[in-house]
Design goal:
Largest sheet: 2 strands, antiparallel
Order of helices and strands: HHHHEEH
CATH class of one domain: Mainly Alpha
Strand order of the largest sheet: 1-2
Shape: globular
Helix content: 40-55%
Radius of gyration: 20 Å
Number of helices: 5
Low-confidence stretches: none
Distance between the termini: 57 Å
CATH superfamily of one domain: SWIB/MDM2 domain
CATH architecture of one domain: Orthogonal Bundle
Oligomer: single chain
Mean pLDDT: 86
Length: about 100
């Protein structure tokens, strides 16, 4: 019985040790539109990096809603990126930001 448990443990360790490959679509450099470039800069970067920069901007400017942390309040720079909306959810934000990437 002890041998079976040891075999299961070593098998599960082998599975978790396998490296996860990043999705090539997420790593492809994308060019931001002029409105998005005002927030994150105009350099081409992967989508993952775009998301990190937007979140850094949101945190730096205190744009996360105080009561509902899932909502993002738009300032003058983010409003055009958010299609004119003054508040969007963090899930909707990624969808709106992707429209500004080429």
């Amino acid at each position: 019985m002890a041998k079976k448990k040891a075999a299961k443990k070593s098998a599960s360790k082998k599975k978790s040790a396998a490296k996860r490959k990043p999705n090539a679509a997420f790593m492809k450099p994308m060019s931001p539109s002029a409105t998005l470039a005002a927030v994150i800069g105009s350099n081409a970067m992967p989508r993952t990096e775009v998301t990190k920069k937007i979140w850094a901007y949101i945190k730096r400017n205190g744009l996360q809603d105080k009561k509902n942390k899932r909502m993002i309040n738009a300032d003058d720079k983010l409003k055009p990126v958010f299609a004119g909306k003054s508040q969007v959810s963090m899930f909707e934000m990624t969808k709106l930001v992707n429209k500004h990437l080429k």
